[in-house]
Design brief:
Helices cover 31% and strands 27% of the residues. It is built from 15 helices and 22 strands. Bound molecules: adenosine monophosphate and glycine. The site of glycine (GLY) has 7 residues, from loops.
């Protein structure tokens, strides 16, 4: 019998998401050598960490050539918006992720709004603005509550929900000052939708797509969805909201038309399309797209994927998902982010992490950690992800918090209500 041809794989990024990719790939029979650049305190020894600047396209290509990397998987959005995929493809190298032009679905909110409008994909009403006077007049037209969004990438800090004129004035001030002003050169003023939020992940080959499990993120820093937005404080997957009927509707009304629209625009989308949706009266509306897997959603979606993630990504990057089927565990997964005191504002680094040895490998994804000889120290705002599994949401939540209690570091904090919205939804809908 032919042996499977094993390939060398490079994963780019350093967060919990990238550790989840490493975990999904390190035991794949199709992988020979696995590298992660720059990686974190957990991605090694499962992969080899490489100190690369992933925004330096030439440095990445040089490494790919030197180490005979067959396939590169790009985790975060910045290298995608920076044209890394185009750069590697031009050199004939295998890579999974969208091109620079296709990445505009995340890097320009207004590109996306216009595209969806042109192709009749459901979204909130919006007005594109280029200066403060236009923003004020748009606010008069839309009324409160409304949402102000910087057009460009803003690391999750470019969205403001304004319930009153005072909140609107302070958001506008924030958007137009200092470092935000580049991303906010243009602003989308949007109707504020209310409903249940849902994240859907579509693996796309430019034409077709396969949906993975849905997830729900918890973006605010404190319990009860209070405090400033973060990169995400926890997630669970799948969500009770995402019935097969709703997922079919998302495929038909959102993902397929967007893939067709991108082909018509001359920039077909290959990679993971992450649709951030608001479900209003059982109908999905697009809040935003990301052009990559979510973090911390990857930490709950990927471990439930029982079929090969490598084969899925290779088929999508090769432009043909037709022969690919995914197999997904019927379990539920929950992840709770352990963060550094002060995050998402100022925080200290370098505190030793205790208790790691008592946690099963499958139940921990590292994020902002650094390995120093035999100790692991904190090295970022989101430090670790405790991951729990169960036959239902309630038992998965319990399992995740058991892990949370085993780990200690100075300043450790976390949300204690991850998954609660899902439980509430189940309670409210159990008689339906
Ligand atoms: P985004 O970065 O676009 O996902 O926005 C961050 C968060 O702001 C989302 O997860 C939503 O909770 C909220 N949001 C953004 N746009 C809207 C909108 N048009 N209506 C309601 N909520 C929104
Ligand atoms: N968890 C939100 C994101 O990955 O953008």
């Amino acid at each position: 019998m032919d042996r499977i041809k094993k390939i060398n794989v490079l994963i780019l990024g350093s967060g919990g998401r990238e550790h989840a990719f490493v975990k999904a790939l390190c035991r794949d029979p199709g992988v020979d050598k696995l590298y992660c650049a720059p990686g974190n305190g957990g991605t090694e020894p499962e992969a080899v960490n490489v100190p690369l600047n992933i925004l330096d396209n030439a440095a990445v290509l040089d490494f790919v050539k030197r180490q005979d990397i067959d396939f590169t998987i790009v985790g975060p959005e910045a290298p995608l918006a920076n044209g890394l995929v185009d750069f590697l493809q031009a050199a004939g190298k295998g890579v999974f992720g969208p091109t620079k032009l296709a990445s505009r679905l995340e890097s320009s909110k207004l590109f996306t709004r216009r595209l969806l409008e042109k192709h009749g994909v459901p979204q909130p009403r919006y007005i594109a603005c280029e200066n403060a006077a236009q923003v004020r007049s748009a606010a008069d037209k839309l009324g409160f509550p409304l949402v102000l969004k910087a057009d460009g990438l803003a690391a999750g800090k470019g969205v403001f929900i304004c319930g009153s004129p005072a909140e609107f004035e302070s958001a506008l001030h924030e958007l137009l000052k200092g470092s935000m002003s580049a991303a906010a050169g243009r602003i989308s003023v949007e109707e504020c939708l209310t409903g249940e939020e849902l994240s859907v992940f579509a693996v796309c080959d430019g034409t077709r797509h396969i949906l993975l499990n849905s997830a729900q993120d918890h973006k605010r820093v404190f319990d009860g969805d209070r405090g400033p937005n973060t990169g995400g404080m926890g997630a669970y997957s799948p969500t009770p909201l995402s019935t097969p009927k709703l997922m079919d509707q998302v495929s038909a009304e959102i993902i397929s038309p967007v893939l067709q629209a991108m082909r018509q625009e001359g920039c077909p989308f290959t990679g993971i399309l992450y649709a951030g949706l608001m479900i209003v009266n059982s109908r999905p509306f697009v809040i935003e797209f990301n052009v990559r897997m979510g973090d911390p959603e990857a930490q709950v979606v990927l471990p439930l994927l029982e079929s090969s993630l490598l084969e899925l990504c290779l088929a999508a990057a090769g432009g043909d998902l037709r022969g690919t089927r995914v197999r997904v565990s019927p379990k539920t997964a929950v992840t709770v982010v352990l963060a550094s005191g002060g995050y998402p504002g100022v925080y200290k680094k370098g505190f030793p992490v205790q208790g790691l040895e008592s946690v099963p490998d499958a139940q921990l994804c590292h994020a902002g950690t650094l390995r120093k000889d035999d100790t692991v120290v904190t090295n970022g705002g989101r430090v670790l992800n405790a991951v729990g599994f169960g036959s239902d949401l309630k038992s998965a939540i319990r399992n995740a918090y058991e892990i949370v209690d085993k780990i200690e570091f100075k300043g450790k904090f976390y949300r204690s209500d991850i998954g609660q919205r899902g439980l509430n939804y189940l309670k409210e809908n159990q008689n339906d």
